[in-house]
Write a structure and sequence with these properties.
- It is built from 3 helices and 22 strands.
- By secondary structure, it is mainly beta.
- The chain has one domain.
- A hairpin with a 2-residue loop joins strand 7 and strand 8.
- The two termini are 14 Å apart.
């Protein structure tokens, strides 16, 4: 497969009435980047049975599967980055997009609802070869501590906001393992869902006191993985998110401590392997320290 060439379209020469001076007008082209979510070979959806998950080969059904992305850049074969300017709509605002694979409401127990499985925008037309793509998972610091009650879509979803942290869930992947979740050392503890909620922690001043000044909040652990993928062809590629690859080192039917699954707690034992697979180090402000294994590039069918 040969990488796509971005075609340079010459700008028109505009002549003024008084002398014929010309001004170049930059040319852009529209671009849609598709994503797909799978668990191994099974497409993520509310009706799917997700098999062979984690260390114990658990079976599970979906409860929620959403993530924010921003700072999307195409990468040329010479390593230069070309920023994608996102369109504005109900799924995208201020350069931030929400990808949503949960096709029913109410934790997959409700009626069929819309999903969003692509990002849409424009790039400058340039005579370059596109060979890769980069983006950041999550909501940027400039928007992370908005008031969710007054924020524009898609930043107005209460389910993607962390009230106890005063910020957004950069990523929310929740499943219901068959048989539920237990703690071997606590016979009375059980939960129906095994959750992955990725978000910034150790933030100050406390954004819950005044959620209207996000620019004043600083977080010790931002927990925004930057994804860099080679072999991306903007005319023929899909970005795949593999939940099975994310949880491959975890036991979904059990929980050792902390929140059920992982909610980005720096001492939560379930978080360590998940952070590793996302290319981060749990409790480390700088990263990534590891190679992520969750996102990949595949050919469109």
């Amino acid at each position: 497969m040969s990488p796509r060439f971005l075609t340079l379209i010459a700008a028109s020469a505009l002549f003024s009435a008084c002398g014929g001076a010309s001004t170049d007008t930059a040319s852009t082209r529209s671009l849609t980047i598709p994503f797909e979510a799978v668990a191994g070979s099974t497409a993520i959806s509310c009706d799917a049975s997700l098999q062979s998950l984690g260390l114990g080969g658990s079976s599970a059904t979906l409860a929620d599967f959403k993530l924010f992305v921003h700072d999307i850049r195409l990468v040329t074969d010479e390593g230069a980055e070309i920023a994608l300017t996102l369109d504005e709509d109900n799924w995208q605002t201020d350069g931030i997009a929400l990808l949503d694979f949960q096709d029913k409401g109410d934790n997959c127990n409700g009626d069929v609802k819309p999903v969003n499985t692509s990002v849409r925008g424009s790039v400058p037309d340039q005579p370059v070869v596109i060979a890769g793509i980069r983006f950041v998972v999550g909501v940027p610091s400039s928007h992370n501590h908005n008031n969710v009650a007054t924020a524009p879509a898609p930043l107005n979803l209460p389910g993607m906001f962390w009230n106890w942290q005063g910020g957004y869930k950069h990523l929310r992947f929740d499943v219901r393992p068959d048989g539920g979740v237990s703690r071997p050392d606590d016979g009375g503890w059980s939960n129906t869902t095994w959750n992955i909620h990725l978000g910034a922690t150790n933030c100050s001043p406390d954004p819950r006191v005044d959620p209207n000044t996000p620019e004043d909040v600083s977080c010790e652990y931002n927990n925004r993985p930057e994804i860099s993928l080679d072999g991306f062809d903007d005319s023929a590629s899909i970005i795949r998110i593999d939940y099975a690859a994310l949880v491959i080192d975890n036991e979904l039917s059990e929980d050792a401590a902390g929140a059920p699954g992982c909610m980005s707690g720096t001492t939560d034992p379930e978080c360590t392997n998940l952070f590793d697979n996302l290319g981060m180090t749990l409790g480390a402000a700088a990263g990534p320290a590891n190679t992520q294994s969750v996102f990949s590039v595949v050919l469109q069918p």
